[in-house]
Structures are given as C-alpha cells and as structure tokens.
C-alpha cells in the first residue's frame, strides 16, 4: 500500500517537483519580481515602512472581498455587485453611527448582517431560481449603488466615532517598552508567527513521512521554510519600524488563514470545489449543490460588508462614490491568482497574491507618476497576460 | 432495377473497436429500405459514413451514388447530392418559427436581405407537402414532438432530396403521429425518393419496408426482400441477436437471501413535459446477494427509473413506495438515498460520475467525506489511506491517487466511480451500463467486482443494453419497455430471443398499453 513509496533518482525528483509546483508558485514569483522592479524603479520608496503600511491599508478591503469572490468563482459564478454592496453598507454604517448615534459595535454587527442578507437575496435567485449570477449581481450592482445614493441623499456623511476609525487607521497597542523606532510587540508577533509557520510545516512533513507519503525533497522544504520565515520577519520588521501592525492587517491575516483552512481542509471547502468542478456529478454524490451556492453568496455579502466598513473607516466618511469599481479589482485579483472562469479551480493564496500584485502595481505606478490613464491600460494588460499564461499552462 | 445507392465493403473502426466490417448495403430509387439491429450494431455508424459525418478516408470501402463513386468530405457534400439525414435528436431551434427553422442555412434573399414573402410562400408549400397544418410563424417550442418531426422533414424537402435517412423517427411519437409519418414516407416512395428507415419497431418496418437489412456487430447478417417473401419477425429477431457469447463471464454461485429493496407502484413523470408518464406504476425488487438485470432498448425508461429511485434525481411528480430491508422509507434527496444505503453508478461517467479535473483520491471520497473528516475537517492522511486502499483493491491503474481522473482509461475511471460508491457501503447498488466504452479485459474485472458485491450480501441491479452481458452475470432479468416491465426471466432460462420477443410484443401493442397506463397514472394521487 502506501508504505512503499517509489524513490526516484534525486535529480529527477527535483525536476518533476519544480515542474509540478511551478503553477502554484508562479504567481508568487511574479509578485516578487514586480515588487523588486518597483523597488528599484522608485529608488527604494516602495518598501519604505510608511509606504508598505499604506500599501496594506489601501488594499485590505480588496483582499477581504477577494476571499469571498474566490469561493463564488470556484462554484462557477461571479458577483458584480460587491463594490456597490460595500458602498451601500458604508452608507448604512454612517447613517447608524453618525446620524442615529448607534453604538459602533452594534452598528458593526448590523452592517455585517445587512451584507449577509444582501448576499442571501442574490444567492437565492442564483442558486434556486438558476438565474445567471452575472445578471442577478449586475442588477444588484445597480440597486445598491442607487440605494447608497438614496441613504446618503447624495451627500458625504461623517466623521465616524474615533473607536470605529481604529478599524482601519489603528495599530495594535504597544505593551512592551519601545526600542527606538521599532515597535517590539509587533516584531514579537512577527517572530512568533514565522516560527509557528516553520514549526507547523515541519510537523506536517514529519507526519506525512511517518505515513510513508511522498513529500517534497528535503532541500526544497528547508529552502522554502527559510525563505518564508525570512520574508515574514523582514516584512514585520519594516512594518514595526513605522507604527507597528495595523489592526486591519491582523483581521486580514486571520481571514486569510481561516479561508485557506476552510478551502483546503474542510468538508464544505471540498464540496464547494466539487460543485464548481462538475455540479451534476457533485449533486449525484449527495452534495446539496444549491445550498452551497447560496452560502457562497451569503458569505460574499458579509465580506463585502466588512470591506465596506473598513473602507468607510479609512476615509472616515461615507461617500456615494465609495466602492465604485471595486468589483473589477476583486475579480481581477482572483483570476490573476489562477482561479478558473469555468469554476472548480482557484486557491485562496492565489487570490491574495493576485490582489497584492494589483495593489503593488497601483502603488508603484502612482509613485512613479504614471497617470491614472495608463495605469488602467497596464493593469488590463497584466490581467489578460496572467490569464493567458494560465490557460496556456493548462493546455500543456 | 439498378441501385441508386451502393455501399461496398465498408469497414470502420474506432480506436481498435471494429464498428463496421465489410458491410454491403444498397438502396434503389423509390424504395423504403429498413435497417434494423440491436443498440450498437453499427446502424448509426453506417449512416454517418454515408452522410459524410465520417469523411472519406476515415473508413474503408466505396460509396456509389447515382452511378458515380463519391467521396464526401463532410455533411454538406452529401446534402448537395440530395442525401438528407434526420437524426433521432431533432436539430431544430426551439425559439425560432417554423419558417425560420426550415430556411435556417440558405434563406431565399435579395442582396443579402431575407425575402420574407418568398420564405413564407415556400414554407406553406412544404408544410402542405408533409401534411402539417400550422402557420409558418408558429414557434417550434409550441409544437408537439410529432409535428416537430414533420418540420424536420419539411426542412429536408426544402433542399433537393434524392434519399431520406430517418433515424428512429417514431421513437418519441404516439400511434397516430407515427402512422401519419409512415404514410408520408410511402408518398415519397411514389415520387422516386429512396428512404432508409432505422427502427426498432418491427411492426412499422413490416408495414412499409420494401427491403430489410439486419446488422449485427457491424456486419450485415441478413437481407430480406419483402416483396418476394412474407416477413417473419422471428427470423429478424433471431438475426438481430443470434451470436456466440463473445465474452467470458466469471463463475458465480449465488446465495440469495431476504429482499433488500422493494419498490411498488412507482410512477414518474417527465420533468419538462409533466403530462408524460415515463415510468408507469411499476413494481420491482432485489434480494440480498442477488444480481438483477434490467434489459431494454434505448429510451425504455431504465435510467429514468433508476435515477428517480436514487433520491428523485430525475423526473417530477414521483410517487410510489420504496422499502429497504422491509422498512418503508422516503428518499427525497440524493443525500437521503445514500444515507439509506442506495448507490447509483451513472451510465455517463464523464458528465455525471466524475469530476475529471480532480484527482482519484478526491473522487473516491466525494460521496462519503464524513468518514475521513471527523468534525467536518478532512484528515488528509486518513483520506489518502482509504483512497490508496481502494486503488489496490480495485486494481485501479494510475500513477498515484493524486493523478487526475480525466487522464485515466475508461475502465479505470469506472473503477474509481465504483470505489466512490463502495465507500458509501451501500445495501443496494444500481449500475447503469457499467461496462459502456470499456475494453474486454476491464469488463471482466468489472464483472468480478459485481460478483464480489453480491457475495458480500449486497443487492445489485445492472442496467445494460448488452444482452449477453446480462445473460452472463444476472440471476434474474427484468425486461423494461416504454416505462413498464414487460417480462421477467430467471437468469438460467433467459435467452436473447426471449428478451427481444418480450420487447417486440410490447412495442406492437404500444398505443393501447400506453393509454391505459397513462389513465391509471392519472387516477393516482
């Protein structure tokens, strides 16, 4: 059975390993290349602590929505309404907190519930009425853009209570004595995280080896762990020398970890991929395909609401234009990250990397002074190129 | 009289499977030539060779049409000469009108603008010719299947027709529509048009055919000139099915126990045409350790019956009772059916059975993930062990369980599907065409697996269009036709001729039988 792993010559194993994993790591390599490119072109501005912190803050809401969008795309659907929903929820938040002085925790919960309800309403038509998601969410896009305008009566509404602003502009509190410009608490968290990641992957590798499962060659494992740990440490160091870890980064990281776990390791995650891969076969295997589709939309609505709250908190005001065009960045992030437009394929890590590629390019090109006009042209071409490479790789 | 069409020594093979061997086939002008044979005998393949679907060069042999040797590159070439084929599945666009459908490819036009008056005038002419009283404006979707068939024929007539090929034209028609269609065919004969009629309904064949050719296993095995000698259905049936049992079947000693699945008064209606009763109040049962075969022609309702049992995954207005191990249960969803101990291995493993882009492991565990996921979190090592276990038990040939199922051969794909269902530990397995598209060696392995399943005390139902297979592996064979069971034989007593005769007897009395069954169904709550 499994305890007789075929041992290939070391060299061939490395070769086949690289080939098999190129697709998974290809986009990560592209992200690193793009970061290096802008780091050089901007004369080191890109990775300055201040800019890096801004980069995280600017893209957090895209990443948060990309997590939900990935699931929607994996089931073979699309959600065009997320930008409008985010904007609408921001408007509702302002109405509650600014106009009606509702407590921010309660308002926060109400807003997430509103988002989930919107997702449920759209998911109902898609899952049970079999109306194409493109149409349902296109309608939703118009409806919620209009409702946001109506709620705000065309005006901006703000400012938010200062505690609520902390959601986006706050940093984790410093509990240790400060050491110059470095924030030791953040650095400590980063170090613990780096060690934890290495420990977890080493443990899972040992477990697999003990069950006789073929694993990646040791050299690769070691190299990967070292690179990963160093990257995490360096990144936290940069962030820690400015003002420490932003609150939103903590939320975002927790969500990425959660969704990564759900998609890879849980029954519901596996079933979502099965529905996207072959809905009929999944249905005949006892999977409740409609219900799953419905829940991916509910989830998307809640995450769009969260993103709307983060965005509103960051601007410290709800404007009728909030959320405009977000859906395009979010969808692009998923496709750049390797999700398939036909469903069934896509990884959380890929979507996050895709969102970061878009974010770094936005940021880098702005620093370089490239106009908004050509920024869009370049982003469009990158999206097309990334998907072309992916399609080419799959045909091979 | 010289032949209008002559196909000489035609042979055609697909990836090592010989579909046609040295077939000789000729049709005279003004002749209705019936082509009969079992499912998979090569009838459709022969017609696809004739119409150019399989282009010249992809088969051996020659086609002579109206005195000249022809080499058709595609279907347009044969249509240009007036050879028109009407397929079993109608190729009409439902939301377009009759007129638009008839003149879809070459509408009469002036300077590229469709000449509507001319379209309507000619459509009316054609509709009169086929005897269809409908406005050219009527949408196809508003017509019944019988009338749609007539529109197809009108469409064929809009082109220059010398030879008309009809593939099972009456399969979905009622008695009156069928009669009208055959009447039409006889009119064409008077006009000198040659017709090839592919049909399972021997009574219809006997009524109109001038000549009958019987195909079996890709060979012409009999030719009957109906004008010279009286038609003997027995002779046709014998020609259709009589062959040596080419396959070997594993030895089997059945230990049959208590009934495990009992279905009574089961009735199912068509999901799109809810007034059409597809399964007509049938009773059915399987015992522990028993292999029961369901024989029947394509479209008899076997798959629909099986899928409706399996958590109502087909049909609407499903009624009747199911009892598993003596306890009556309601299986309203696939998940409920699986939990109760029912498994259904689909006939279409690529579309309905597997997620081809996923690996062997994920496909095997898909229907029983809970077993390897304590607390809804998948234990990937437990999953891997289960999958590897099935891989070695079922002898699935793959590089490892992480190989994509899309890359496996048909036989190995089928073993993956079987593994998936075995993992659910079913009490009853329904296998729908379990060896379709599988090579002989893998078939034998599948038969062995079926034996093992029965020996382990499970009830096994095998739906198959290959009669020798049913005869070789089943303890009991039920014959289904037109949504009802029309015969039942113990495995030892069953022969292909008996099965075929049961089907043909039912086909003949079809009209009345269908009406009675529908009335009975209508009075059910």
Description of the molecule:
The complex is a heterodimer of chains A (about 400) and B (about 525). Chain A is built from 15 helices and no strands. Chain A is mainly alpha-helical. Chain A has 2 domains: about 55-170 and about 265-395, Orthogonal Bundle (ABC transporter involved in vitamin B12 uptake, BtuC), CATH 1.10.3470; about 175-245, no CATH class. The radius of gyration of chain A is 22 Å and the shape is globular. Residues about 1-10 of chain A have low confidence and may be disordered. Chain B has about 525 residues and is α/β, with parallel strands linked by helices. Chain B is built from 18 helices and 22 strands. In chain B, the strands form 5 sheets. A 6-stranded mixed β-sheet of chain B has the order 6-9-10-3-11-12, sandwiched between helices. In chain B, strands 18-19-20-15-21-22 form a 6-stranded mixed β-sheet, with helices on both faces. In chain B, helix 15 (about 440-455) links the parallel strand 19 and strand 20. The interface between A and B is medium-sized, with 28 and 37 residues.
Write the layout of secondary structure elements.
The complex is a heterodimer of chains A (396) and B (525).
Chain A: H1 10-41, H2 49-74, H3 82-99, H4 104-127, H5 133-152, H6 162-169, H7 184-210, H8 218-240, H9 247-265, H10 267-277, H11 279-283, H12 289-315, H13 326-336, H14 348-368, H15 372-395
Helix pairs in contact in A: 1-14, 2-9, 2-12, 2-13, 2-14, 3-4, 3-5, 3-12, 4-5, 4-12, 6-12, 7-8, 9-10, 10-12, 13-14, 13-15
Chain B: E1 3-14, E2 17-28, E3 32-36, H1 43-51, E4 60-65, E5 68-70, H2 75-80, E6 83-86, H3 98-102, E7 109-110, E8 113-114, H4 116-130, H5 145-158, E9 163-167, H6 175-190, E10 194-198, H7 202-208, E11 211-216, E12 219-225, H8 233-241, E13 259-269, E14 277-287, E15 291-295, H9 302-309, E16 316-324, E17 327-329, H10 334-340, E18 342-345, H11 349-353, H12 360-365, H13 380-393, H14 410-423, E19 428-432, H15 440-455, E20 459-463, H16 467-473, E21 476-481, E22 484-490, H17 496-508, H18 510-522
Parallel strand pairs in B: 3-10, 3-11, 6-9, 9-10, 15-20, 15-21, 18-19, 19-20
Antiparallel strand pairs in B: 1-2, 1-4, 4-5, 7-8, 11-12, 13-14, 13-16, 16-17, 21-22
Helix pairs in contact in B: 4-5, 8-17
């Amino acid at each position: 059975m499994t305890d007789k792993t075929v041992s290939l010559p070391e060299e061939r194993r490395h070769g086949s390993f690289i080939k098999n994993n190129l697709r998974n790591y290809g986009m990560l390599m592209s992200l690193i290349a793009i970061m290096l490119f802008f780091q050089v072109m901007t004369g080191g501005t890109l990775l300055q602590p201040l800019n890096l912190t801004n980069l995280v803050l600017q893209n957090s809401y895209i990443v948060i929505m990309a997590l939900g969008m990935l699931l929607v795309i994996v089931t073979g659907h699309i959600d065009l309404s997320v930008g409008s929903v985010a904007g609408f929820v921001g408007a509702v938040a302002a109405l509650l907190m600014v106009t009606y002085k509702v407590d921010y925790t309660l308002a926060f919960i109400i807003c997430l519930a509103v988002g989930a309800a919107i997702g449920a309403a759209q998911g109902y038509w898609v899952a049970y009425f079999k109306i194409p998601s493109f149409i349902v969410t296109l309608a939703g896009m118009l409806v919620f853009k209009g409702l946001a305008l109506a709620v705000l009566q065309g005006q901006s509404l703000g400012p938010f209570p200062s505690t609520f602003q902390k959601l986006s502009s706050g940093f984790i509190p410093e509990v240790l004595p400060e050491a110059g410009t470095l924030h030791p608490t953040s650095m400590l968290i980063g170090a613990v995280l780096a060690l934890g990641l290495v420990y977890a992957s080493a443990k899972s590798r040992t477990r697999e080896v003990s069950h006789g499962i073929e694993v990646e060659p040791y050299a690769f494992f070691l190299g990967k762990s070292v690179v990963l740990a160093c990257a995490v440490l360096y990144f936290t160091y940069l962030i820690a020398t400015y003002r420490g870890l932003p609150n939103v980064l903590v939320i975002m990281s927790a969500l990425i970890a959660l969704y990564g776990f759900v998609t890879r390791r849980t029954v519901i995650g596996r079933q979502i991929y099965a529905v996207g891969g072959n809905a009929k076969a999944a249905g005949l295997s006892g999977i409740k395909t409609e219900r799953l589709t419905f829940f991916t939309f509910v989830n998307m609505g809640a995450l769009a609401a969260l993103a709307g709250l983060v965005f509103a908190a960051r601007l410290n005001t709800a404007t009728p234009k909030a959320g405009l065009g977000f859906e395009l960045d979010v969808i692009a992030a998923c496709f750049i990250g390797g999700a398939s437009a036909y469903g069934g394929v896509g990884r959380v890590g890929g979507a996050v990397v895709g969102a970061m590629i878009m974010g770094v390019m936005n940021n880098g090109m702005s620093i370089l002074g490239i106009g908004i006009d050509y920024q869009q042209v370049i982003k469009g071409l990158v999206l097309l190129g990334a998907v072309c490479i992916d399609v080419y790789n799959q045909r091979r | 009289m010289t032949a209008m069409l002559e196909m000489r020594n035609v042979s055609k093979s697909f990836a090592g499977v010989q579909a046609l061997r040295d077939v000789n086939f000729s049709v005279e002008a003004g002749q209705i030539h019936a082509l009969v044979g079992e499912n998979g005998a090569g009838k459709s393949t022969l017609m696809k060779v004739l119409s150019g679907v399989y282009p010249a060069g992809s088969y051996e042999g020659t086609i002579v049409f109206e005195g000249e040797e022809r080499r058709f590159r595609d279907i347009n070439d044969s249509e240009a000469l007036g050879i028109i084929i009407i397929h079993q599945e109608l190729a009409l666009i439902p939301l377009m009108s009759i007129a638009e459908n008839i003149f879809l490819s070459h509408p009469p036009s002036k300077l590229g603008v469709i000449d509507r008056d001319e379209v309507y005038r000619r459509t009316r002419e054609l509709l009169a010719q086929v005897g269809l009283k409908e406005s050219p404006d009527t949408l196809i979707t508003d017509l019944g299947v019988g009338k749609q068939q007539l529109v197809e024929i009108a469409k064929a007539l809009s082109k220059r027709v010398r030879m008309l090929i009809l593939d099972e034209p009456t399969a979905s028609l009622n008695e009156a529509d069928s009669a009208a269609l055959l009447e039409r065919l006889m009119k064409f004969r008077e006009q000198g048009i040659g017709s090839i009629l592919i049909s399972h309904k021997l009574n219809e064949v006997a009524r109109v055919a001038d000549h009958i050719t019987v195909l079996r296993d890709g060979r012409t095995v009999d030719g009957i000139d109906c004008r010279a000698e009286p038609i003997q259905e027995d002779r046709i049936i014998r020609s259709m099915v009589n062959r040596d049992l080419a396959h070997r079947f594993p030895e089997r000693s059945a230990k049959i126990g208590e009934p495990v699945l009992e279905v009574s008064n089961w009735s199912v209606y068509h999901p799109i045409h809810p007034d059409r009763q597809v399964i007509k109040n049938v009773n059915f049962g399987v015992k522990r350790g028993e292999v029961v075969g369901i024989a029947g022609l394509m479209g008899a309702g076997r798959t629909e019956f099986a899928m409706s049992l399996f958590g109502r995954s087909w049909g609407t207005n499903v009624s009747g009772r199911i009892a598993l191990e003596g306890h009556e249960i309601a299986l309203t969803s696939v998940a409920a059916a699986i939990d109760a101990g029912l498994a259904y291995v689909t006939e279409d493993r690529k579309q309905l059975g597997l997620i081809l882009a996923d690996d062997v492991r994920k496909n095997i565990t898909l229907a029983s993930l809970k077993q390897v996921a304590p607390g809804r979190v998948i234990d990937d090592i437990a999953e891997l062990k289960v999958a590897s276990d099935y891989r070695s038990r079922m002898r699935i040939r793959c590089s490892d369980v992480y190989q994509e199922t899309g890359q496996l051969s048909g036989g190995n794909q089928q073993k993956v599907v079987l593994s998936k269902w075995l993992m659910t530990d079913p009490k009853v397995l329904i296998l729908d065409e379990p060896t379709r598209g599988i090579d002989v060696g893998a078939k034998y392995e599948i038969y062995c697996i079926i034996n093992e399943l029965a020996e382990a005390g499970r009830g096994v139902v095998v739906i198959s269009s290959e009669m020798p297979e049913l005869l070789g592996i089943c303890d009991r064979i039920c014959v289904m036709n037109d949504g009802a069971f029309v015969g039942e034989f113990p495995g030892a007593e069953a022969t292909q001729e008996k099965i075929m005769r049961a089907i043909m007897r039912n086909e003949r009395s079809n009209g009345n039988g269908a009406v009675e069954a529908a009335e009975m169904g209508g009075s059910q709550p």
